């Protein structure tokens, strides 16, 4: 059925209605998120004839800055920059003129657990001393695994691809508290069910940060002026080489070129870079062995909720705004208030299996969930000036956030499919990164790799 539809769309969109032959480009980049914009920008700067196509009427992909007035923004998607190690993103931030801000360290952290609210010292874990020791020894075991996994060729550790992350935790941890903690962390960080992805997928993903300790400080800086400014600048630099509102329906390659068909036009290139979430690629008519990998990808599930206030009123009650929970409806709440305007902003996150039911609810229902969670934590609820949420799983141009993952056994089966070039198709996106996979930095790193591959092939 897929091949029939692809052929139909190709013939329909390239038939007599298009009298003149389409222009041929050196490279067409599909997707104008961080990876796509950076890939196209690099290639254009090096003198190649490039076209970047984006289905949405905006750029940025899974970075989605929402204006809230006074030149300030909240982020409905990716929000943070790490304390160290993300030099590509740091450079773009410096060039764009937006200024990073760190989370307030004032006040008490809170934990919702076992039907009550507990105060925590900064960085403390909500568990017994024995469970904390158990958690530490699991962490040390995990570190040893990360040191032996190849980031570039993870399939060489095939034994880890045969055991799920959940099963590994069950065997590694001694106490139920520690097992519950690690299961929750994995579900939250990968936005997937730990029973469905392998220990190899988890280890490779974590190892791309270079040092595990970096992951503890990966959500260090945020940007009240909006990360969208970075990508609007990159889009402006591309000029006419960027076309938005062009949803790609089919990609068809022959021995010398690739035809890209959108819902209104047809374009031809020597090479095409697919800078899309992998779960979208299988619908484009790419070769069946690649489409199969794309169709098997685990879509990340995440819901973000944001409440905007006149001021951070929780600080007056002695709270930092940070609330962790393993048995509440939200995983985490953080204070992302804006220093310049004084606006108080609470960001709530729920990821993995627990997010599915919430993501399907209305905005009013989500606000009610958020209200109950905040009231349970702070003992009070105040109506926000604005409330936002975005369901990335229901977003047809993304179908999941913050990143997708390979299922159990997939690294061994497909190895570098959807990463290394295949024919006239190349791939970019944070899922293909060898550095900071799952982060904006990973998308930028993948773009540099894809651009270098294009140049090499064109030569």
Strand content: 15-25%
Q: Indicate the CATH architecture of the largest domain.
A: 3-Layer(bba) Sandwich
Are there runs of 5+ residues with pLDDT below 50, and where? 1-19
For the record, what CATH class of the largest domain applies?
Alpha Beta
Overall number of structural domains: 3
List how many beta strands DSSP finds. 18
Say what the CATH topology of the largest domain is: FAD/NAD(P)-binding domain
> How much helical structure, as a percent, in the residues?
25-40%
Mean pLDDT: 92
Radius of gyration: 23 Å
* Tally of contiguous helical segments: 14
Give the N-to-C terminal Cα separation.
Answer: 37 Å
**What structural category characterises the helix and strand content?**
alpha/beta
Coarse shape? globular
Biggest sheet overview: 7 strands, mixed
CATH homologous superfamily grouping of the largest domain: FAD/NAD(P)-binding domain
